[in-house]
Design a protein that fits this description.
binds carboxymethyldethia coenzyme *A; transferase; citrate synthase activity; 443 residues; globular; EC 2.3.3.16; mainly alpha; Cytochrome p450-Terp, domain 2
Length: 443
């Protein structure tokens, strides 16, 4: 009998613990980074102050999961019969262990998810009680929060769980939650946009195919879902959603509290909500153009109008990346293969040509290139998911996979409560060696 994911993970954790312990005990005083005033005021950009082995974001190259590029991940993970995209469950295995699972190992995880997928009735009752004008991210976050009652970690912690075993209870919570997220998301979709008409899940399907089934969308939407969940799963630890998940979990809040919180961070327009903003922006242009494709000059004018009115161009720019996002590229390739003549794809592709030189000329954005959100909604739209408020929920399912993996490892390695230090403006002025503004004006 093959080892289970949990057994494999347990061995990896035993090997990793002494590495972290040694760094902390023997090299704890070694300086990693220095911090400038610009970084302190400017959202802590670039300060190396978090550790994760699950993914690393290179500004030029983009994301690597466990050292592998997205192409390598998609190439190396097992795929379901008839699918071009790999099992999402296999990605979870890779993120947790650093190893590519074989078919048998991935099947074990698929079965685990299938067993744990049933959502308690009280969660549906909470979802049902929301007005239909609510944003799906608020409902999604609340539904996850509601599941906190089920937490294995909380139960065991109350009973006196040893610190070295925190990760095991967290692992159980993570699997229980991840298995339910597609069910919850599809239920929210059907409540808001299909008058509650529900398509039940099929326990024999993998996560991507099952999600397509519950959304009632034909192939290749199963592959669209797999690709979507995989490329959105992790982007190292400093982005708002990942950082929020880690921060909240660091107080030993359970997975449900932590993932609900990270979903709230993802719901901001500068982060995950940008994918709905892209579609909203494109739709406005389409309406003004009477659905005709604008000329390059016309599109340039739309972009300048947005910038001149003091707004950002959604789907472009990034806090870390300085090149086109490989997640954007993968989705563009998918679109070129499956929906080359789609009008919205043509609009989005025209933006790819038009926006970067304009942002360069505008001179503010450090990165003029498109990010993941510039393409993801375009694909969803093509396959009939036109209620773009829902797009960030899809991002949230994917992102939960990476954050759950991170939180399990946080607990395994005993990372402590997060607590950076703040300073006052007076203190910064003193550090800078300048007089306070008021004093300078008086003199
Ligand atoms: N359009 C217009 N202006 C932009 C811009 C864009 N797409 N991207 C950055 N800028 C502006 C910033 O608003 C900032 O202006 P101010 O100096 O007036 O405040 C200036 O350029 C410098 O910003 P930056 O250092 O390049 O970018 P940040 O690290 O501060 O912010 C991000 C990064 C993503 C929030 C920003 O590029 C942005 O707002 N992009 C549009 C929204 C978006 O696509 N977000 C999704 C990102 C991916 C994700 O996390 O999901």
């Amino acid at each position: 009998m093959k080892k289970t994911l949990k057994q494999t993970l347990s061995e990896k954790i035993d090997k990793q613990r002494p590495r972290t312990k040694k760094l902390l005990k023997e090299y704890g005083d070694v300086v990693v980074d220095q911090v400038t005033i610009a970084q302190v005021i400017g959202g802590m950009r670039g300060i190396k102050s978090l550790v994760t082995d699950i993914s690393y974001l290179d500004p030029e190259e983009g994301i690597r999961y466990r050292g592998y590029t997205l192409e390598e991940v998609i190439e190396g993970l097992p795929k379901p019969k008839g699918g071009d995209m790999p099992y999402v469950e296999g990605l979870f295995y890779l993120l947790l262990t650093g190893d590519f699972p074989n078919q048998e190992e991935v099947q074990q995880v698929v079965d685990e998810f299938s067993k744990r997928r049933i959502v308690p009735r009280f969660v549906y009752d909470v979802i049902d009680s929301f007005p239909t004008s609510s944003h799906p991210m608020a409902i999604f976050s609340t539904a996850i929060l509601t599941l906190n009652r089920e937490s294995v970690f909380n139960r065991q912690y109350q009973a006196g769980l040893s610190k070295k075993d925190y990760w095991e209870a967290t692992y159980e919570d993570a699997l229980n939650l991840l298995a339910k997220l597609p069910e919850i998301a599809a239920y929210i979709y059907n409540k808001l946009y299909r008058k509650g008409e529900r398509i039940l899940s099929d326990p024999n399907l993998d996560m991507g195919a099952n999600f397509a089934q519950m959304m009632g969308i034909e192939k290749p939407y199963d592959d669209v879902s797999r690709l979507h969940f995989i490329i959105h799963s992790d982007h190292e630890s400093g982005n708002v959603s990942a950082h929020t998940g880690h921060l909240v979990a660091s107080s030993l809040s359970d997975i449900y509290l932590s993932i609900s919180a990270m979903i709230n961070g993802l719901a901001g327009p500068l982060h995950g909500l940008a994918n709905q903003e892209v579609l909203r922006w494109l739709q406005e242009v389409m309406n003004k153009m009477d659905n005709k494709l604008p000329s390059t000059e016309e599109m340039e004018q739309f972009v300048w109008n947005t910038l001149n009115s003091g707004q950002v161009i959604p789907g472009f720019g990034h806090a870390v990346l300085r090149k086109t996002d490989p997640r954007y590229k993968l989705q563009r390739e998918f679109s070129q293969k499956h929906l080359p003549d789609d009008p919205i794809f043509k609009y989005a592709d025209l933006l790819y040509k038009v926006v970067p030189p304009i942002l360069q000329k505008h001179g503010k954005a450090k990165n003029p290139w498109p990010n993941v959100d510039a393409q993801s909604g375009v694909i969803q739209w093509h396959y009939g998911v036109k209620d773009y408020d829902f797009y960030t929920v899809l991002f949230g399912i994917g992102r939960s996979i990476g954050i759950c993996a991170n939180i399990i490892w946080d607990r395994a390695l005993g990372y402590p409560l997060e607590r950076p230090k703040s300073v006052t403006t007076d203190m910064l002025e003193k550090i800078a060696g300048i007089k306070k503004m008021a004093e300078a004006e008086e003199n």
